[in-house]
Amino acid sequence: MQIKVIDLKKKYGNITALKNITFTIEDKTITALLGPNGAGKTTTINILTGLLKPDEGEIFYGDFSFQTNSKKIKSIIGVVPQHNNIDRDLTVYQNLLVHAILFGLKKNEIKNRIEEILHFTGLINHKNKKAGKLSGGMKRRLVIGRAILHRPKILFLDEPTVGLDPATRRHIWDFVKNINKNFGCTVVLTTHYIEEAELLSDYVYFIDKGEIIKYGEPEKLKSEMGKYVLEIFSGGKTIEEYFESKTEAIERLKQHEDVDLAKIRDVNLEDVYLKLTGRKIDI
Ligand SMILES: Nc1ncnc2c1ncn2[C@@H]1O[C@H](COP(=O)(O)OP(=O)(O)OP(=O)(O)O)[C@@H](O)[C@H]1O
């Protein structure tokens, strides 16, 4: 199901969180909203999932307006908030059970569905453990597993790996990819991690100060810049120059004077953002 977001605007008092957000999410894809802290990602996702009302703008899930069909649409989406909102005193199983009841799963399918999720999340051997006793990665898997318990067509994840160590982060990425592949679930995530957006998503929307400033497929966005970056550190400053080959970068390096340090590396999405805004995202 395609999602169309048209001209979203949102203010908190006199703070403008969203100036004008317009984008489209294609069915069965993984799309990342990438931007620095405060860019408006959480506000956007909260509006898309019905937690917040926009001041202006429209959202369509397929042909259905969210405004007039919110109940129906909420039943086909799964939401993973930025902070794990599990009940720490309940067991893993009970956390899933509460969600199953809330989402109106039929009594005769609840047990099987929970078992399926426990296997899929790798939490089957921890099902009777208090959720508060799980590791950070396991808690995250529980929250994501819970969000797909009712087999949503679309899964929203707000900063899915924030605060996790790099190895756990990679496990979560594989896990999210599997959900997209195995269940044909459309995935929309927000992140300020460049690597996360690059490795996970089919499409990236750069969001900055409440506006979409660029979008596209990660590889295409990068190739518009070149293949390699020559980073020159000189007199406390960093200069970035872009090239199609390492040979060209080396030739250019020879022309520079007063180089303290130099590095040639692959272009990444941070470079695209830096060129657009003059700032870095992942700080
Ligand atoms: N409840 C609120 N009251 C007032 N201002 C808010 C509120 N929520 C967000 N803001 C402000 O709105 C802007 C967008 O915030 P938002 O949380 O959507 O950004 P974000 O990109 O998700 O960043 P982060 O990852 O830090 O949450 C920021 O300037 C933020 O300070």
Question: How are the SSEs ordered, and which strands pair?
Answer:
Elements: E1 3-12, E2 15-25, E3 30-34, H1 41-48, E4 56-61, E5 64-65, H2 66-74, E6 77-80, H3 92-102, H4 107-120, H5 136-147, E7 154-158, H6 166-183, E8 186-191, H7 194-200, E9 203-208, E10 211-216, H8 218-223, E11 228-234, E12 237-243, H9 246-255, E13 261-266, H10 269-277
Parallel strand pairs: 3-8, 3-9, 6-7, 7-8
Antiparallel strand pairs: 1-2, 1-4, 4-5, 9-10, 11-12, 11-13
Helix pairs in contact: 3-4, 3-5, 5-6
The structure holds adenosine-5'-triphosphate.
The site of adenosine-5'-triphosphate has 11 residues, from strand 2 and helix 1.
Descriptive report:
The protein has 283 residues and is an alpha/beta fold. The chain has two domains: 3-216, P-loop containing nucleotide triphosphate hydrolases (Rossmann fold); 226-266. The chain has ten helices and 13 strands. It has helices at 41-48, 66-74, 92-102, 107-120, 136-147, 166-183, 194-200, 218-223, 246-255, 269-277; strands at residues 3-12, 15-25, 30-34, 56-61, 64-65, 77-80, 154-158, 186-191, 203-208, 211-216, 228-234, 237-243, 261-266. A six-stranded mixed beta sheet has the order 6-7-8-3-9-10, with helices on both faces. A four-stranded antiparallel beta sheet has the order 2-1-4-5. The chain starts with a strand and ends in a 6-residue tail after the last helix. Residues 12, 15, 17, 35, 37-43 line the site of adenosine-5'-triphosphate.
